[in-house]
Design a protein that fits this description.
Blueprint (H helix, E strand, L loop, with lengths): L1 H19 L8 H24 L6 H5 L6 H28 L7 H15 L4 E5 L1 H11 L6 E5 L6 H10 L5 H10 L3 H8 L14 H13 L2 H11 L5 E4 L6 E7 L15 E4 L3 H4 L3 E8 L7 H8 L3 E4 L4 H9 L2 H9 L3 E5 L14 H11 L7 E5 L26 E5 L2 E2 L2 E5 L1 H13 L6
Parallel strand pairs: 1-2, 1-7, 2-3, 7-8, 8-9, 9-10
Antiparallel strand pairs: 4-5, 4-6, 11-12
Length: 445
């Protein structure tokens, strides 16, 4: 009895997999229709030829079943013909695809549907850098292949900073993270690209991904071509673009923390901090960040992607050293403003030491407004799950979704916390929340 039920289950599963090939959006029905039209025209042509050769030998009377009533004869030929066509197509696909895919046709069908669903997904541009941008891309790539990451080139710390200073390339670190997040085999590529050499005076501290992109830049002749070729080789779902190809430095004006600058009645002096990696280490209150030079031209591909987007997302990521450096490129901010896409700023789950200590959602938005322009991102997405106990660390707290009553932005909240890492976003939760902005609102901001 169990064997009989197992056989019935397998039969139903095969039938379900077969019928899924005809489901909407798969792109099979149009080609089946073209094939059917072709077969019909071929049959019509052969019938005309046979008519010209008439009368035919007596054997054709039996081959064409002329001893059976015409209606029944037509039904038999249609049924047998369709069966032969389906069997031929399935058999041909099995033979062609068997060396490349798992023989589980149910799994193949799901992968095929997923591919076409992502191809038809919304055009989304994500602006930022660091781990926050990679987290966002990791969730969005499950829903759309029309992804563009616009990445900051202001990084000057660690392996990226060394390669930038010694070889004159743009810092590859944030690009490495995005490429790994968007790669088809993400687990393997991430493990490989994030491998950090620990020995040797030359390789010590470098990651394999940074060296790969740098070598590709030497071979391809330019950094942007290196990113393109790396994405192609690693089957990246989407594209990763720099906000500018100019060699820019991120600087900041930082005031001392209260109680560390002597007489509180005196105006606080502003210290200039040079270099992206030095800004959080200054451990002061960031008053302003700016690029040097301030008029660096935007990368044209990034501008085109922004103008053609359905959704533009800034963040999550370090507010002053990952998100704002992109928006400080004048043409990038102008493209965001001119785009008809919905625009949303994703506020960080937790505050960051040396950048946003004590910040609320309103403080994050206010910093963007002061540096760029008001209402560049009319929508704000923030986490509202504050019940989880984050590890006690000075300067790191969950960001409260607090805004004043007259706050001129639309704030939407949801549980966005990654429960395995409470100060970061959950990729899947964040992607669902952002896609809901497109699905639930037909108008554009």
């Amino acid at each position: 009895m169990d064997d009989h039920n197992t056989m019935r289950h397998k039969t139903r599963r095969k039938l379900h997999s077969a019928t899924q090939w005809l489901s909407p959006g798969v792109g099979i029905k149009r080609w089946l229709l073209a094939l059917a039209v072709g077969v019909a025209l071929l049959s019509l042509g052969l019938s005309f030829l046979l008519r010209e050769l008439y009368p035919l030998p007596i054997i054709f009377r039996y081959l064409t079943l002329q001893f059976i009533p015409r209606g029944l004869r037509a039904g038999i030929f249609v049924f047998v013909g369709l069966g032969a066509i389906v069997a031929g197509i399935v058999g041909l696909n099995r033979s062609l695809l068997r060396p490349f895919v798992n023989p589980d046709w149910h799994t193949l069908m799901r992968g095929f549907q997923r591919y076409h669903r992502r191809e038809r997904g919304p055009r989304i541009v994500a602006i930022g850098g660091g781990h926050g941008l990679a987290t966002l891309l990791r969730g969005l790539k499950e829903h759309t292949a029309n992804l563009t990451a616009v990445v900051t080139v202001a990084d000057d710390g660690g392996s990226s900073g060394r390669l930038r200073r010694e070889l004159g390339v743009l810092p590859p670190g944030d690009f490495r993270n995005c490429i790994a997040a968007l790669a088809d085999d993400e687990a393997l590529i991430t493990h490989l690209f994030q491998y950090r050499f620990g020995n040797g005076s030359g390789l010590n501290g470098h990651t394999l991904g940074n060296l790969f992109i740098t070598a590709m830049a030497e071979m391809a002749g330019s950094f942007e071509q290196a990113i393109l070729e790396s994405s192609r080789v690693l089957a990246v779902q989407g594209q990763v673009l720099p906000s500018t190809l100019h060699d820019v430095k991120l600087n900041a004006e930082v005031s001392p923390l209260p109680g560390t600058d002597g007489d509180e009645s005196m105006p606080r002096r502003l210290n200039r901090v040079t270099g992206e990696s030095s800004i959080p280490e200054a451990r002061g209150i960031i008053q302003r960040v700016y690029l040097d030079p301030s008029d660096a031209p935007a990368y044209p591909g990034a501008v085109r992607a922004l103008l053609n987007a359905d959704l533009i997302v800034a963040g999550p990521g370090s507010l002053y050293t990952s998100v704002l450096p992109n928006l400080l490129v004048p043409e990038i901010a102008e493209a965001v403003k001119r785009s008809r896409a919905r625009k949303v700023y994703v506020c960080n789950v937790a505050t960051q030491v040396g950048e946003t200590e004590g910040f609320s959602v309103a403080d994050h938005v206010g910093a963007i407004e002061r540096h760029v322009q008001p209402h560049l991102f009319p929508l704000v997405l923030a986490n509202d799950n504050l019940e989880l106990a984050i590890e006690s660390s000075p300067g790191v707290d969950l960001v409260p979704p607090d805004v004043p009553p007259d706050f001129p932005y639309r704030v939407m909240t949801a549980d966005l916390v990654d429960k395995t890492c409470l100060w970061r976003h959950d990729s899947a939760k964040l992607a669902r929340a952002l896609l809901g902005l497109i699905q639930n609102h037909g108008d554009r901001s």
